[in-house]
From TrEMBL:
<dbReference type="Pfam" id="PF00067">
    <property type="entry name" value="p450"/>
</dbReference>
<dbReference type="InterPro" id="IPR036396">
    <property type="entry name" value="Cyt_P450_sf"/>
</dbReference>
<feature type="region of interest" description="Disordered">
    <location>
        <begin position="73"/>
        <end position="92"/>
    </location>
</feature>
<feature type="compositionally biased region" description="Basic and acidic residues">
    <location>
        <begin position="73"/>
        <end position="84"/>
    </location>
</feature>
<dbReference type="InterPro" id="IPR002397">
    <property type="entry name" value="Cyt_P450_B"/>
</dbReference>
<dbReference type="InterPro" id="IPR001128">
    <property type="entry name" value="Cyt_P450"/>
</dbReference>
<comment type="similarity">
    <text>Belongs to the cytochrome P450 family.</text>
</comment>
<protein>
    <submittedName>
        <fullName>Cytochrome P450</fullName>
    </submittedName>
</protein>
Length: 422
């Protein structure tokens, strides 16, 4: 493998004073700051740009343990300053609304019940059957720009693919999917802000989903929403509100993450020509093994989710020897844990054939990503198809000129300009 992002001596970043967090440079390359934290302050209390104080957990062993610790609640009511967390723990501006009662904001036993019900409808089999459609969508998007010889892979490819895919899977009719794309675009561009366009988009989406669920109850199809309505466990069903919240979290959790997997993943391949050629050769030989381990490695090395979603201590506890008070917010830094040299050999190196790659990019424990099979399908299809159809794909900007979205939870590029032979 080859190195990216500064490379050099793996220990150099951890020396000297603490690099600043949440600045412009941090957004484009947070890894040196995370290396410093892992080394000097592995469980670190900090003030977030929103003003909320939270603990950052950066070592792999601590992160994995915290993700599975039932004393850390997902319910924002456990925050010692719940008013502060308003609009920051989940969907912007929707804290009290019905849509907030979703998997990422609840604990057992409610979580167990809802997760079991959704798992009956959102099965690996349903995802596997969806593979030809994902391939078709991927090809259609490439068809639209292939003759130009240039494209912005975020706007023209990584962004529309997951939204059309999840809409299809849920059963949103094709003629309504562009509305969804626009609402989702508003949310991704202005994510985090509780007011204005985002709130309006969320409201429209909620209204649309409520209506769609109502229609599917009367006229079920073989889509996921009909499956959610039908799913039952010991005679229990999802209520219409629960089904709407579930559809919304599937969209919300499955959208920007997948945009970033395709965006960050392609960017890393373009910056690591040796690894990219290796993958291209293996795909040309009809193999899929390197593609599969490769997409996992792209997730580990520069994954879409920089910090796991919020957790709150329900009682005093210690993480990595650090005492945490009841009510304190805890943020598990997946991006830091996945580069921990205690867990991964040569962690800053991209090695598409890496073995023993138990990364935390999809989380861990009871909230482990429900959409991982779909994300893998989309990530593998998107990357393999790009490399096959645009074999001389290259970056059309200096890496330093690329801008990253400054969101707290997600890590992803705003644009990814590329060139290729038309
Ligand atoms: C949960 C990552 C794609 C649906 C999670 C979590 C992570 C994650 C880290 C756990 C968060 C936490 O514990 O705080 C990713 C990544 C993706 C991806 C990296 C893409 C590469 C998807 C897709 C869907 C999805 C495509 C659905 C269509 C969910 C849901 C949860 C979740 C519903 C909540 C599960 C629960 O609380 O029980 N994801 N995700 N994700 N993800 Fe994903």
């Amino acid at each position: 493998g080859t190195t990216t992002d500064g490379g050099g001596c793996p220990h150099s970043a951890a020396e000297g004073p603490q690099p600043p967090l949440f600045t412009w440079e941090f957004a484009s390359d947070p890894y040196p700051a995370y290396a410093w934290l892992r080394e000097h302050a592995p469980v670190h209390r900090t003030r977030l740009p929103s003003g909320v104080e939270a603990w950052l957990v950066t070592r792999y062993a601590d992160a994995r343990q915290a993700l599975a610790d039932q004393r850390l609640s997902k319910n924002p009511e456990h925050h010692d300053e719940p008013s502060h967390a308003k609009g920051k723990t989940g969907i912007p501006g929707e804290r009290k609304a019905e849509l907030m009662t979703h998997l990422l904001n609840i604990d057992p036993p409610d979580h167990t019940r809802l997760r079991r019900l959704v798992s009956k409808a959102f099965t690996p089999r349903r995802v596997a059957q969806f593979a030809p459609r994902v391939q078709e969508l991927t090809d259609q998007l490439i068809d639209r720009f292939v003759a130009k010889g240039e494209a912005d892979l975020i706007h023209e490819f990584a962004f529309p693919l997951p939204i059309y895919a999840i809409c299809d899977l849920l059963g949103v009719p094709r003629e309504d999917q562009d509305d969804f794309r626009d609402w989702a675009g508003m949310m991704i561009r202005h994510g985090g802000g509780p007011r204005g366009g985002v709130a309006r988009s969320v409201k429209k989406m909620r209204g649309y989903l409520a209506e769609l669920i109502h229609r599917k109850r009367l006229e079920p199809g073989d889509d996921l929403i009909s499956g959610l309505i039908k799913a039952s466990d010991h005679g229990e069903h999802l209520t219409e509100n629960e089904a709407a919240a579930m559809a919304f979290i599937l969209l919300f959790a499955g959208f920007e993450t997948t945009v970033n997997l395709i965006g960050n993943g392609t960017y890393q391949l373009l910056r690591n020509p040796g690894e990219r050629e290796r993958l291209q050769r293996s795909l040309a030989a009809g193999e899929t093994g390197l593609l599969e381990t490769g997409v996992e490695e792209l997730l580990r090395h520069d994954g879409p989710v920089e910090l796991a979603t919020w957790r709150f201590a329900t009682e005093p506890l210690t993480i990595g020897g650090q005492e945490i008070a009841s009510g304190d917010p805890v943020l598990v830094v997946l991006a830091a844990a996945d580069r921990d040299p205690e867990r991964f050999a040569d962690p800053d190196t991209l090695d598409l054939s890496r073995r023993d790659n138990q990364h935390l990019g999809y989380g861990h424990g009871i909230h482990y990503c429900l959409g991982a099979p779909l994300a893998r399908l989309e990530g593998q299809t998107a990357i393999a198809t790009l490399l096959r159809r645009l074999p001389d794909l290259r970056l059309a900007a200096e890496p330093d000129d690329l801008r990253w979205r400054g969101g707290l939870i997600m890590r992803g590029l705003r644009t990814l300009p590329v060139e290729f032979t038309a």
